[in-house]
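sry for the spam today, last one i promise. struct tokens for design, 352 residues
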């Protein structure tokens, strides 16, 4: 599974209560085809037994830098890694990473590796806000490590809610994918549309279609993993929005058209994966239409053609991708839509 298949991931687990979540992250990575080498600190083994990770990954777990016969284990693991992820990353380990310490196996791997490193902090909210931790996170980023922001939510031991929770494994999994893709779209802005639109008939009913939004969400996720800034303009989705994308939620085709027009001037690519409605009720009722007063017919009007309307707003050289769903004369109808939506850039003459 791209980009995880056949890649080597060092998953560092440090001694916090969130270490139980690292098991699920290890499983996600292994199921995606990655070889996962789990490295545990001494504190982590107080919360989760190494055998748990061995069962989930099918690989030996590493915990002791002084283990007999493993004197250069930190060098081997550092060299073979395509990415190093520390989840959870406690306040103590963040401090040691920022200081360049090498007093255990995991810290030594960070110093020896040339692979990208992702640190996923998890701690009490007051610890996260402490000036020393703020400084350590800043230093870690300056060293080239990526440091995720902790999630906001209920904390351990009835401490209430605040920033400090480890993000969920599914979210971390996507960030690992971004590490592995190495930023092939870095510096690019990709605009994606997804899902259906809904055109009101009355106060409670609407015209729509069967689009789930799955394809557009997958495209947006792939672009974000490759380093792009991603804006997703989405109608009502049946799938969760992708990690990392800036999501603009819309309802009607007209709302989607306005959102696309506003975002398009800064976009390097527009991928129209949404299925906006082609028709709308000509005069939608403001109240629910009762069965007893139902009209014999419903007058329709055409909805905006979003792709065609972008022609004058596209950046020169931008990439435009549209989709055409047809039930007959597929090639002819799709080609006709291509002609209507096509922008021809005029190149200057050689003498200009």
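last one done:
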């Amino acid at each position: 599974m791209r980009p995880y298949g056949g890649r080597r991931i060092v998953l560092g687990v440090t001694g916090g209560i969130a270490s139980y979540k690292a098991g699920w992250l290890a499983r996600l990575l292994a199921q995606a085809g990655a070889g996962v080498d789990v490295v545990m600190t001494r504190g982590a083994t107080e919360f989760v037994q190494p055998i748990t990770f061995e069962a989930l990954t099918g690989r030996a777990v590493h915990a002791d830098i002084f283990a007999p016969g493993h004197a250069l284990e930190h060098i081997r693991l550092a060299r073979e890694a395509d990415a190093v992820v520390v989840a959870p990353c406690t306040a103590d380990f963040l401090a040691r990473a920022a200081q360049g310490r090498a007093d255990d196996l995991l810290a030594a791997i960070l110093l020896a590796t040339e692979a990208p490193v992702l640190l996923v902090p998890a701690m009490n909210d007051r610890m996260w806000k402490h000036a020393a931790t703020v400084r350590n996170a800043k230093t870690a980023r300056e060293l080239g490590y990526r440091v995720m922001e902790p999630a906001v939510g209920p904390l351990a031991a009835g401490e209430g809610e605040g920033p400090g929770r480890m993000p969920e494994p599914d979210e971390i999994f996507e960030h690992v994918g971004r590490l592995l893709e190495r930023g092939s779209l870095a510096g690019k802005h990709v605009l994606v549309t997804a899902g259906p639109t809904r055109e009101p008939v009355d106060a409670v009913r609407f015209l729509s279609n069967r689009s789930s939004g799955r394809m557009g969400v997958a495209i947006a996720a792939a672009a974000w993993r490759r380093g792009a800034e991603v804006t997703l303009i989405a109608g009502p989705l049946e799938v969760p929005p992708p990690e990392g994308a800036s999501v603009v939620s819309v309802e009607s085709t007209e709302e989607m058209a306005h959102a696309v027009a506003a975002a398009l001037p800064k976009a390097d690519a527009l991928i129209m994966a949404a299925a906006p409605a082609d028709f709308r009720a000509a005069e939608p009722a403001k109240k629910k239409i009762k069965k007893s007063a139902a009209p014999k017919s419903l007058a329709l009007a055409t909805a905006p053609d979003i792709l065609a309307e972008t022609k004058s707003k596209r950046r020169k050289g931008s990439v435009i991708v549209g989709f055409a769903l047809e039930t007959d004369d597929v090639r002819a109808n799709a080609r006709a839509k291509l002609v209507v939506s096509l922008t021809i850039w005029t190149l200057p003459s050689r003498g200009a």
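The two ends are 49 Å apart (CA to CA). ok im logging off now
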